[in-house]
Structure formats: C-alpha cells, structure tokens
C-alpha cells in the first residue's frame, strides 16, 4: 500500500519504483519518519519519502496520513549521518553485513539507501529545545548568521540562537520558532554599534508584533525545513538569478523537537517564526516562560514575526 510520488519516482527510477510497488523492497513494518510511531506497509497507506543530499539519497517511509510522498533536500553531512545510522542497524540485524545503496541513478548519485529509522533520538516531553552555539544540555550549534542572512552583504558574523516551543493563540497551539542573535546585528556597510536586526527583518517581510493574540501574517518565499522529524533550518527566498531557496539559519546538527511540536507542525503545515534582538528572550526552560518573554518583547516593540509553510516532514 505504498504511495510513490512522481518526484520520488523520477529520482529513484522506474525499476526501483516498480520493485517498491510490487513489495520487493518495501520494509513491511517501519517507524514513521514524521510521527515516529510504527507503521505497516501491508495494512495502511504509506508514503515514500526520499531524502536527497549532494551525493547520497535515503528512502524512508511515513504514514500517508502524516505526510505525502515527496523528495526532501538535506545537506550531505546530515544525510551521511543518517546512512551511518541505518547501515549500523542493518549490520546488527544481518550479522555484521552492512546494507548497500540500491543501484545508481543516471546522474551518478548512488541509488537510495532504504531504511526504517533515520538518525532519530528520543525527545523529552514538554519544554523547549534551544539551539545555540554553547553546546550545553539540550543544545545544538547554530550556523553563524550575518546581516547578509537577514538582508544584504555580510561585513561581520553573529550566531542565531533558536528555541522551539508551542504558542497558544485563541484555543489552538501553534508550533513556533524563536530566533535571537548572540550580539547586535549591524546594517551592511555600517561601522557603528547599533543593532539593525529587526529593521533588516522587517525589510524582508517580517511583521512587528504588538501582542501574541493573533497569528502572524505569512512571509512570502520563506519556509521552515523539517526533515526526518528534526528541525534543519529556516529558508529564505532565492537570490536573483536562482530558483533555489537559501538557508537563513541552518543547524550544524539537526535539532530535536518535541512530539507535540512536530505533530502540530505536520497538522497545520505552518510554523510561526518570532525574532527579537539580543537580550530580549533568553533561553527559557518552559513554554509558559517562553510565552512571557515573548509578551515582554512585544510590549517593548522588540518583536517581529511571520508564519511560514513547513517544508519536508
């Protein structure tokens, strides 16, 4: 009962797609790459999800009710980590014989490695998951960001700290990402000590937040990349002359999110992204404290936001 989208079929080739649909390479039971609960290809509709790096492809499986069959682009480094995890599991299951990628594609990239579970770690219930440069408990490194990442040329770097949590608006919990740099962000070409982080983001489509009682308006061209059930980055529109979006923020290591956050994101296919200047939010250990910090920042005119579609699973 597999669903193989046209995009996936084009990547893996007709022969591999035929074998999958015939059940030859289907896993039977699997852990859904989105919700992480068990699934069975013989009893329920299952989506094929192909994670594609620069040289490697990994084919995973998900409940069709969670995500559709699709191709998800991730970095080669992240995908290699997933392959090591899969081959390690297969080696244990097959007496030390690691699994091999299935065939080769016309473009030269190895065919997809088929795996049931891709590089997942259990996530504690509740709370927030910070992503900062400290590498402390519950933290993952964030990619150095620059004013170019916010809106232009890049004279100097800063690091964006990212925290995931759910925000209650009305009667609905919304998955949210809160972004706060570790220092002031200067406007390109400026040598002064000023912080232009929020003005630069407003120029890119973010909206000032006066209170947290309304869902932020969408920001055209931006999206949040969730792959293999983990947060990988925030994407901004492609530069002139390109059709590919670029990373505004990218995790050095995929960031775990809570089951509730992931479920809400997959249900709404939308993530709320809030941003505040350095020192406005801090790392809050609970979602109620995160909410209070956001409300304080909004009251002081130090908060912008936008809603972004979810890319990936």
Automatic annotation (TrEMBL):
Region (Disordered): 21-44, 88-154
Top-rank taxon: Bacteria
Biased composition (Low complexity): 111-132
Protein name, as recorded: Uncharacterized protein
Species of origin: Streptomyces armeniacus
